[in-house]
Design goal:
Blueprint lengths: L6 H26 L10 H55 L6 H24 L1 E2 L2 E2 L12 H26 L8 E5 L11 E4 L12 E5 L13 E2 L2 E2 H17 L7 H10 L4 H8 L5 H9 L6 H20 L5 H10 L5 H8 L7 H17 L14 H4 L26 E3 L9 E7 L7 E7 L17 H51 L3 H37 L1
Helix pairs in contact: 1-15, 2-3, 2-14, 4-5, 5-6, 6-9, 7-9, 8-9, 9-12, 10-11
């Protein structure tokens, strides 16, 4: 029995401290609802729990971000819906304006409404806002690209090529076989006044037919567009295209390379008439020497060679008709139907006796050509084109009326003899890029782009319902297709954002559950612990009291 060191008391004190500590911990957990109240409770659990809390808070904010992003895109789609409605109305006006029953004043009234709609489209595109910022790009890059190039492509797609082929088919009886794709190149350039346009190939077949064809145009000579005819009087762009299409159709339907240059160029001039050129080169007879010299040399290096070829084709046409044939058409169809045949063979077999052969034609033209040209009326309105008043007694075909520029088809499928490959023009306006933060982490974003939708950007700022309603329909179709594609893209992103928002909610829910399992207190367990620790505390207190009383027993020995 000891007095100085009371081991039982020390043991009871330690047990009381342990019980008190356990009691305090249980009280903290029950009062806070958390199993981990500080790092000493569970250092690793605290680290994991805080990371999970960051994910939960981030996911909740990303969900709010996603909803804001949905609102922005819905604002954009709503504005585009109205723009679409107005363009549909403009297209309706264009279809109405394209009817021949309307007078110019009627079309002007339609144009007035179209102008107002155009202005409102630009206004909506400029004023559409979300949270103080423009929804759409404000740049004016046009889906139509350069206006002059677009106008030339419009001319090709909406009449020039189609009417040229139909005219060639009707009066020459030839057409390509439809097997080739003809490329259209607008980048040919030798400066204004040089080579306006030409067709080219890189391969010739065994029968003289071209194996690939490119139609090359020099924009320097096709500007200003001045649709629907193009260019300026009297050498309109549609007449130039008709000229080159003769070469294209001939190059694919006969032994083109073996033909004399005067025949090839004369046929190309004859399809649209060349009285203006012939009148200047012939000069009342003074230029005949240069013309016949170019003819004899088969040279088309200068204008005189073209005029000689044109005069020769008109002479040939006139004489074959007088002999009972259909004219130049008989020669063309023979060359087309008899692969590898020459002009000499065609004149022998298809001129209805007008010419024995090529040499006979050349002799006849050299002898009678001057008088034949002198008898032509080169100054009247008719251009001298095949089928017209001067040549065949038909209607007067002036420089404007040769080609009416009213194709029945549109786009890249306007020819029977060739498929067409047009150069890409425009294609998109300047974009405004959006990056939506739709996740808790830095790399969890969705990017999208919204274009500019002003009238200029849509390529409809110069819609002309008075002179060019057909072109207006084509441009509006292009603009509508562009807007619809952009709305489809916005709709796709909206659907993705909806899925993202749902996923964020699920993710936040599951992450919260995971964090709860780590950080939250189990009240049943902690209540039991509290009860146990309270009992132990009471017991330890009682035992400590007993242990502290034992030294008094040692003192009783001294009293005895």
């Amino acid at each position: 029995m000891q007095i100085i060191t009371n081991l039982q008391s020390l043991f009871a004190q330690r047990q009381l401290d342990t019980a008190s500590s356990g009691n305090s911990q249980a009280l903290r957990r029950l009062s806070s609802g958390l199993r981990v109240n500080s790092a000493r409770d569970d250092a690793a659990g605290l680290a994991v729990g805080e990371r999970l809390r960051a994910q939960i808070n981030g996911a909740n904010q990303a969900w709010r971000n996603t909803n804001d992003s949905v609102s922005l895109l819905q604002t954009a789609d709503g504005s585009l819906s109205k723009i679409n409605d107005m363009m549909q109305r403009m297209r309706e006006l264009a279809v109405q304006a394209n009817n021949a029953t309307l007078q110019a004043s009627d079309r002007q009234a339609l144009q007035a409404e179209a102008n107002q709609l155009t202005q409102e489209i630009s206004s909506i595109a400029k004023k559409a806002e979300f949270n103080g910022q423009n929804v759409f790009s404000q740049a004016d890059a046009s889906i139509g690209g350069d206006k002059d190039r677009r106008a030339v492509l419009d001319g090709l797609k909406l009449g020039w090529l189609e009417e040229s082929e139909q005219r060639i088919k009707k009066f020459y009886g030839i057409v390509g076989d439809g097997a080739l794709t003809m490329d259209v190149n607008l980048n040919s350039s030798d400066g204004a006044g040089g080579k306006l346009a030409y067709v080219s190939t890189t391969a010739v077949g065994g029968n003289g037919q071209w194996q690939n064809i490119t139609l090359n145009l020099d924009m320097a000579d096709f500007t200003p567009p001045n649709l629907p005819n193009g260019g300026s009087a009297p050498y309109y762009n549609d007449r130039i295209i008709a000229h080159e299409m003769v070469h294209a159709e001939m190059s694919r339907s006969m032994d083109f390379n073996s033909l004399p240059n005067w025949f090839k160029e004369g046929a190309a001039e004859f399809i649209h008439g060349a009285d203006e050129r012939l009148n200047a080169d012939y000069a009342g007879g003074g230029g005949w020497a240069a013309m016949i010299a170019a003819f004899n040399a088969d040279s088309v290096a200068a204008s005189a060679g073209y005029s000689a070829g044109y005069a020769a084709l008109r002479y040939m046409h006139d004489k074959i008709k007088a002999a009972g044939g259909a004219g130049v058409k008989d020669i063309m169809t023979y060359l087309s139907n008899n692969a590898g045949s020459t002009l000499d063979q065609a004149l022998t077999n298809a001129s209805h006796g007008a010419f024995a052969n090529l040499a006979g034609f050349q002799t006849a033209f050299q002898t009678n050509g001057n008088a034949f040209v002198a008898a032509m009326n080169l100054t009247n309105a008719d251009t001298g084109a095949i089928g017209g008043a001067d040549t065949d007694g038909g209607t007067v075909l002036n420089a404007t009326d040769i080609m009416l520029d009213r194709g029945q088809r549109a786009g890249s499928n306007v020819l029977d003899g060739f498929k067409l490959n047009f150069p890409t023009q425009g294609g998109g306006s300047t974009v405004k890029e959006y990056q939506f933060q739709v996740g808790a982490n830095a790399d969890q974003t969705i990017k999208t782009q919204i274009q500019s939708f002003s009238a200029i950007s849509l390529g409809i700022d110069d819609i002309d319902l008075v002179q060019l309603p057909t072109f207006a329909i084509a441009h509006l179709d292009e603009a509508l297709d562009f807007v619809n594609r952009q709305r489809a893209n916005i709709g796709a992103v909206l659907n993705r954002l909806d899925a993202t928002a749902t996923n964020l909610q699920i993710n936040a829910e599951n992450t919260s559950a995971a964090r709860s399992r780590i950080m939250d207190a189990d009240f049943a367990q902690e209540s039991a612990v509290l009860t146990r620790q309270q009992i132990l505390t009471q017991a330890a207190t009682a035992m400590l009291s007993q242990a502290n009383s034992q030294p008094n027993m040692a003192l009783s020995l001294l009293r005895g």
